[in-house]
Specification:
- The chain is mainly alpha-helical.
- 61% of the residues lie in helices and 6% in strands.
- It is built from eleven helices and five strands, in the order ααααααααββααββαβ.
- The strands form two sheets. A three-stranded mixed sheet has the order 1-2-3, with helices on one face. A two-stranded parallel ribbon has the order 4-5.
- Helix 4 packs across helix 5 (176-191), helix 4 crosses helix 6 and helix 5 packs across helix 6.
């Protein structure tokens, strides 16, 4: 190779090296400038944040960031979902309250209809009671007739030969036939001068009482009730005798005996049963087993006073003898103070007042 050529090549290489080195230096300077600008920008932002934090007051919290939308929905998607859930729950609760209100209104409406129906029925009953058409509706209902004279008149008019219509015990009192009999007796008694001042309700009550007697007698005439009829008849007769005996003994009481006697009832009187002894008809006396000995002694004293009275002895059967004690049960209720004097301890009534 020629020496001149070597010199030219070296010059070219050195020029390229210098050019590359210059480019490298320019690149490093640009990198440094860029790093400095980034650092300056970061410092500037830090300075702004620091100044903002120093200028903000702790009493005023940051207001949430909302995007201006028609419904004011938050920008956050999570907050928006919670708000929609809340709206759905409120809507469901509103529907439930509306349905409950409708059901309640329906029930109240049905109750109002029932109350109106009850008021109408009560009004109809009041009108029917005031201006009823039947005999049993036009007058105040009474269970029994307490006027013995009126009861006897009803019996006499009913069984009179001129009366061709009588009660039928096989039918009820409200049947057409028995109602016509009651109407006849009502008119007949109203026409009688002795009963013109008697109220119609009292006459109808007497008719009902007599019909109950006719019906009871008819039942007891049936084969199935024959034995029961005899038993009830004997019990009724025995009770009537005890009532008369109690009234007679009370009339001969002395002043010092009134306190001990107070509270005595017909249940404590002895039973008087029909019997004969040596051809003499009289009564067999059977004292109650639950009566105290003190009361029995007082009853004996009172009876001896009655037997000494000629008028009483002439109108009452003779007491033949004393039989065994009565098997009647003691009364279920009695005065608590009187029970201590009148009953034996083992036969005290269960209800004391």
């Amino acid at each position: 190779m020629d020496p001149e050529d070597d010199v030219v090549l070296e010059a070219d290489h050195s020029g390229k090296i210098e050019k590359l080195s210059g480019e490298l230096e320019e690149g490093e300077e640009m990198q440094l400038a860029t790093d400095d600008s980034v650092t300056d920008d970061q410092s500037f932002h830090l300075l702004l944040e620091s100044s903002d934090s120093n200028s903000a007051t702790p009493e005023e919290p940051e207001s949430p960031c909302f995007v201006e939308r028609p419904l004011g929905i938050p920008a956050s998607s999570a907050t928006s979902a919670d708000f929609k859930t809340m709206l759905s729950a409120i809507s469901g609760l509103s529907c439930f309250v509306t349905q409950l209100s409708e059901n309640l209104c329906q029930k109240l409406g049905s109750m109002d209809e029932r109350f109106v129906s009850l008021e109408q029925r009560l009004s109809a009953l009041e009108e029917k009671q005031e201006s009823g058409s039947g005999l049993g509706e036009t007058h105040k209902r009474r269970r029994r007739c307490s006027n013995t004279k009126l009861a006897e008149a009803v019996r006499r008019f009913h069984n009179a030969e001129t009366n061709g219509s009588r009660y039928e015990p096989e039918q009820g009192l409200s049947s057409a036939h028995n109602q016509s009999v009651t109407s006849y007796l009502l008119q007949a008694l109203r026409a009688n001068p002795d009963f013109q001042c008697v109220e119609s309700c009292d006459i109808i009550s007497a008719c009902k009482t007599y019909f109950a007697t006719v019906r009871r007698n008819f039942r007891y005439q049936q084969p199935d009730f024959e034995a029961k009829a005899v038993l009830l008849k004997n019990l009724a007769r025995s009770r009537q005798r005890r009532k008369r005996l109690l009234a007679a003994r009370q009339r001969v009481l002395k002043a010092e005996e009134l306190e001990f006697w107070q509270g005595v009832t017909v249940d404590l009187m002895s039973d008087e049963e029909d019997d004969t002894s040596e051809g003499i008809f009289g009564w067999i006396v059977r004292r109650p087993s639950f009566r105290s000995q003190e009361l029995s002694d007082l009853c004996g004293v009172l009876q001896s006073r009655l037997d000494a009275c000629p008028k009483y002895s002439a109108t009452h059967h003779r007491r033949l003898r004393c039989g065994s004690e009565s098997d009647r049960m003691p009364p279920t209720s009695y005065s608590s103070e009187a029970a201590k004097r009148h009953f034996m301890p083992e036969f005290m009534p269960k209800v004391l007042f």
